[in-house]
Amino acid sequence: DAKTTQPTSMDCAEGRAANLPCNHSTISGNEYVYWYRQIHSQGPQYIIHGLKNNETNEMASLIITEDRKSSTLILPHATLRDTAVYYCIVRGISGSARQLTFGSGTQLTVLP
Amino acid sequence: DAGVTQSPTHLIKTRGQQVTLRCSPKSGHDTVSWYQQALGQGPQFIFQYYEEEERQRGNFPDRFSGHQFPNYSSELNVNALLLGDSALYLCASSFGLDNYEQYFGPGTRLTVT
User: Fold this and answer.
1) Please, what is the Cα angle at A51 between A62 and B95, to 5 degrees?
2) pLDDT band, very low/low/confident/very high, at A97 (cuts 50, 70, 90)
3) In chain A, which residues touch B (CB < 8 A)?
């Protein structure tokens, strides 16, 4: 069972920041938060991951709340090519918990 | 640098038949995982191969089996196909079992009629 809750869909205007929320209230101390996205007809693409601290890379920023029960993926300047399903995943570090368990994700539509 | 490649792209099989799907990992990667993605759903983990052995397995029946070759490429075999096996089959590769960053291929679309 997926350990995360995400909105089913969101819209964002092109050029604006897209903020995608994720709830993971049962996350344990050694579990990471991962984000992947899947553009239509392609395989999922890794975006970013984090444990406690906020993280930033060339694609996005990940903001994790202090209690680690929720996080937000931020795409700073969304483009039409960012339209995709975004998956928030909680991943452990040993055994079967290492595997990626995908939920239904959030369909982000970037509008022109 | 070639990423993860999968073949074939599309496949149509009849119920009861057997199918083999193939995956070549990204250069430098030694671990391969397979996922099944039904229409409108997220990918579901089938199993993972490392050092030519199945290391982890998801909740899939024994009809699903796999193999990893010395060059790290992998096959997914499905026997006695059911209509419900129709899905996109994704292969992902990574380096080592920690596989914190998996690279996915484009998938093979299997249709069972």
Assistant:
1) 95
2) confident
3) 2, 32, 41-46, 49, 85, 87, 91, 93, 95-96, 98-105
